[in-house]
Amino acid sequence: MEIPKLLSVITVCVLVVLLAGCGSGETENRGNSASTNEDMPVQPAAQDETTGAETAETETEEPETAESETVKVESDTAGGLDAEHGKDGSSALVVYFSWSGNTENVANAIAGQTGADVFEIVPEEAYIDDYNALLDIAAEEKEKGARPAIVGSIDDISQYDIIYVGYPNWWSDMPMILYTFFESYDLAGKTIAPFCTSGGSGLSNTVNSIRELEPEADVLDGLHISSSAASAPDQAVSDWLENLGLIKE
Predict the structure, then answer these.
(1) Distance between CA 84 and CA 91 in Å, rounded?
(2) Prediction pTM value
(3) Tens of pLDDT along the chain (249 residues)?
(4) C-alpha pair distances (Å), 199 with each of 75, 101, 102, 107, 170
């Protein structure tokens, strides 16, 4: 009787040892599996960051591409614009003032599509680069009715039939230096096509102001391009010129 009991005890001990070993193995395998699952999200996250960086780089390059598509026209302002510029048969002139470069982009697009000559209005006393300070200066010039002096001149404006005039919208008006331009030249009998850039103010009352300044000129409907679209104005310029019947053939 003692021997069977001893064998039973031994059998139970063996079974206990075997079960303990199996349980330990399962626990170890589960631990390895959990560790692998924790690592899996890291790789997709790294891929997403790489994709985001590539997207950001592409977006940075887009303005450069748009700007390169804008036709660049060299202007001569230091010595004025003389009759030499009109010898290619051009009867149109683009006159513009630009502080940030937005109006310049539109002016160059117009010149590229019409073959017009270009004269940039450059103030003798350059405007400050700080935008907030510029707001105060522009407001003060408007309040005083200032007439800032212009560098250079157009020697023979009579040779031009169409004058495109561009400017930013400052305090719902043209910059005062535009008034200097209009008061410096006789534009009677000419066609004036205004264009303007701004953050969202549009043309305001500037077209009517030009009509008051030039009652003997034919002042056409103006073009407004927002600052956000000024880096690629070609299509808007083309549509405007077509509507006015001013596209060069």
Answers:
(1) 12
(2) 0.66
(3) 454 555 555 554 545 444 444 444 433 333 333 333 222 223 233 333 222 322 222 222 222 222 323 233 333 433 344 433 444 556 999 999 999 999 999 999 999 999 999 999 999 999 999 999 999 999 999 999 999 999 999 999 999 999 999 999 999 999 999 999 999 999 999 999 999 999 888 999 999 999 999 999 999 999 999 999 999 999 999 999 999 999 765
(4) 26, 13, 10, 17, 10
Which residues in 33-91 belong to E strands, given as ranges?
none
Taking the CB of residue 172, how many other CB atoms lie within 10 A of it?
A: 13
Whether the Cβ atoms of residue 230 and residue 105 lie closer than 8 Å to each other: yes
C-alpha separations of 156 from 15, 22, 91, 112, 205 in Å: 113, 103, 12, 22, 29
Q: What is the 3-state secondary structure (H, E, C) of 164-198?
A: EEEEECECCECCHHHHHHHHHCCCCCCEEEEEEEE
Under 8 Å between Cβ of 203 and 217: no
Burial bucket for residue 168 (CB in 10 Å: 0-12, 13-18, 19+)? buried
Beta bridge partners of 170: 173
Listed in sequence order, the residues at least 6 apart from 154 whose beta carbon sits closer than 8 Å to its beta carbon are 80, 81, 82, 93, 95, 119, 185
CB distance 208 to 192 below 8 Å:
no
Look up residue 147 and give its DSSP letter: -
Tell me the longest C-alpha to C-alpha distance in the chain: 135
